[in-house]
Amino acid sequence: MPSIHRPLPHLLSDARRWFEEGLLATLEASGTAPVSAPQLQLFAVLDDPGTTVSELARRMGVTRQTAHQAVHGLIAAGLLEQVPDPASARQRLIRRTPEGRRVHREAVLVLERLEAQLAARIGREAVDALRAALEAPWGEPPGTA
C-alpha cells in the first residue's frame, strides 16, 4: 500500500488544531468563558497596550468584519475592552481586561504544558527541530516579491 504524503500546509494545520483543541479544552475545564478558535487567534496577536481592529484583521489574515465579530464576542465575555487610541481620535484600541490578562497568562502556561506533552510523545529533539524550522526566516512567498 503506497504511503500518502500529505502536503505540509495540511500537517501544519493539524498541528495548530492539536494545540488549539488542547488549549480550549483546558480553559473550558478551568471555568474560563468559552471562546472559539478565531477568538483564540485574535487573543494571541493582540499587543498589550492595545491594537486596532484593522491591524488585528491583518495579523489574523481575515476580513475586518471577521475580526470585529471576534472582538465583540471577547468583549461580551469580559476578556477585552475598547479604549480611545491616543494616536488617533478616530480609532479605538482593543486590549485585554484584567480578566483577559489573567486568562492570557493561564493560556501561556497551558501552551507550555502542551509543548512539554508533545516533547514527551515525539521527543525533545523533534520539538526543538520543529521550532527552529518554524522560527527560521523563510522570506517572501514565491511570486509575491
Automatic annotation (TrEMBL):
Domain HTH marR-type residue range list: 5-139
InterPro entries for the chain: HTH_MarR-typ, MarR/SlyA-like, WH-like_DNA-bd_sf, WH_DNA-bd_sf
SMART domains on file: HTH_MARR
Matches recorded under Pfam families: MarR_2
Gene Ontology biological-process entries: response to stress
Signal peptide positions on this chain: none
Domain of life: Bacteria
Alphabetized GO MF terms: DNA-binding transcription factor activity
PANTHER family assigned to the protein according to its UniProt record, in alphabetical order: MARR-FAMILY TRANSCRIPTIONAL REGULATOR (PTHR33164:SF57), TRANSCRIPTIONAL REGULATOR, MARR FAMILY (PTHR33164)
This protein's name: HTH marR-type domain-containing protein
Organism: Streptomyces longispororuber
